[in-house]
Amino acid sequence: MNNFEEYCTQFVQTIGNKEGPVSPVITSSASFAYGDADTAEGIFSGSVKKPLYSRMGNPTTAKLENVMAEMDGGIGAVATSSGMSAVTLATMSLLSMGDEIISIGGLFGGTYSLFSETLTRFGIKTHFFDVDELEAIENTINENTKIIFCESVGNPNMRLPDIKKIANIANKYGVVLIVDNTITPLSLKPLELGADIVVYSTTKIISGNTSALGGCTVFRAINENDDKFKTQKYKDVHKFINKMGKMALIANAKKRALRDFGMSASAHASYQTMLGLETLTLRMDRIVKSVEIVAKELSKAGIKVNHPSLASSEQNSKYKKLFSKGCGTLLTIDMGTKEDAFRFLNNSKIATLTANIGDNRTLALHMASTIYSDFNEEQKKFLGITEGLIRISIGLENPQDIIDDFIKAAA
Ligand SMILES: *Cc1c(COP(=O)(O)O)cnc(C)c1O
Q1: CATH of domain 5-276
Q2: Confidence band of 106 (pLDDT split at 50, 70, 90)
Q3: Residue ranges of domains in the chain
Q4: What is the spatial order of strands in the sheet that 215-219 belongs to?
Q5: In this model, does residue 306 exceed pLDDT 90?
Q6: Gap between the Cα atoms of 302 and 158, Å rounded
Q7: Atom 8 of ligand 1 has which residue's CA nearest to it?
Q8: Is residue 81 within 8 Å of 265, Cβ to Cβ?
Q9: Band of the pLDDT at 381, cuts 50, 70, 90?
Q10: What's the confidence (pLDDT) of residue 273?
Q11: What is the Å distance from ligand 1's center to 40 Cα?
């Protein structure tokens, strides 16, 4: 049985049309004609549900948003031009000058740079923590803490957060929890674990074929009675709650991020992303199984492998308890030195050397000389970047072929 059987029917049935073109229609138009002045007025006030302008929403993109929202049990979703814009949308649609973020886990480079450099220029401060520093995290929360941000799997340090525990802390103090679930779609459902917002780079495993850059942010409904978004801390969202009720977070994100920042998804990218989504269940299922096999065999062959499924990993008990459907496509190997890492990469015939992850093909990259080359020693230490570290994203190839190739490359 496929690990993700519950989604197999939903994806193909909702992405395909039952009448007319079976494949989703690409509405390739930036603007939309309203027909008459009354309809135009209605569209702008929200009483007429028709497209306004593609920066604010597009029918092809709306279809992708609906599938993504359903996948995560959210009330709605907003697709964006990239994964980084999904992170920016989720955070900047809520933050004001003087606010603070608590960021948990080994962070994606772009997100780390957004929090540690760009947002500080706007008076927004971020405190960074390892996944297990729960007490320190709790002690750092103050009246300015507006967002707790966490990645579902540390990339590339492979450390695993207990999202339920983190969500309990966020809820106890009335702080919003955003989870970047890029690496573990289907495997992990952050909204069910208590998160409020989920962000994705759909560029990765959701597309799988590296044909389109994209992102998506999934939101939960606002509760009718008690809701932390109704507290004074999130007062900028209140006017959307008054007007849109449970859909308020979608309206807030669209106004603040799509209308004002313009990070909207293109219809063509949304279409390509849906082609990937149709087969996500099958690819995820195969890859999370392959990753475990490859990790085990490379480790047996004496290569220093980091993957939570290995008994040697200090994350192994968390993996078994919290990640029963795998933790995505990544593993890392440490070749000790930069020279040995380069030799491995240049010898491998299977690995495609690229900064991407979650592809149909197996990908690999030396971390210190590429993505993290402009990070200082202290930052690299925090993020777990050693001199010989290679990040590998396992693809759809026969796992035995990957193992044979890597063992030869490492020799
Ligand atoms: C790739 C990635 C992003 C950024 O996505 P882009 O589509 O490249 O902008 C954000 N978070 C994680 C975990 C990623 O892997």
Answers
A1: 3.40.640.10
A2: confident
A3: 5-276, 283-410
A4: 76-80, 215-219, 197-201, 176-180, 145-151, 100-104, 125-129
A5: yes
A6: 19
A7: 83
A8: yes
A9: confident
A10: 98
A11: 37
Q: What mean pLDDT is predicted for residues 335-339?
A: 97
**Which are the contacts of 47, defined by CB distance < 8 A and separation ≥ 6?**
none
**How far is Cα 337 from Cα 80, in angstroms, rounded to an integer?**
39
Q: How many CB atoms lie within 10 A of CB 194?
A: 18
Give the contacts of 221 (CB within 8 A, at least 6 positions apart).
74, 75, 246, 247
**Ligand 1 geometric centre to CA of 121 (Å):** 22
Helix (H, G, I), strand (E, B) or coil at 251: helix
Residue 356 near residue 110 (C-beta atoms within 8 A): no
Q: Please identify which residue in the block is written with the tokens 């959210």.
A: 74
- Give, for ligand 1, the residue of 183, 203, 211 to mutate: max count of ligand atoms closer than 8 Å to Cβ: 203
Per the DSSP assignment, residues forming a β-bridge with 176 are 147
What global pTM score does this model have?
0.96
C-alpha 242 to ligand 1 mean position (Å): 33
pLDDT tens-digit series, residues 35-76: 999 999 999 998 999 999 999 999 999 999 999 999 999 999
Which tokens go with 305? 């492998």
Q: Indicate the helix (H) or strand (E) that contains 365.
A: strand 363-366
Q: Does domain 283-410 have CATH number 1.10.630.10?
A: no
Closest C-alpha to ligand 1, atom 7? 83
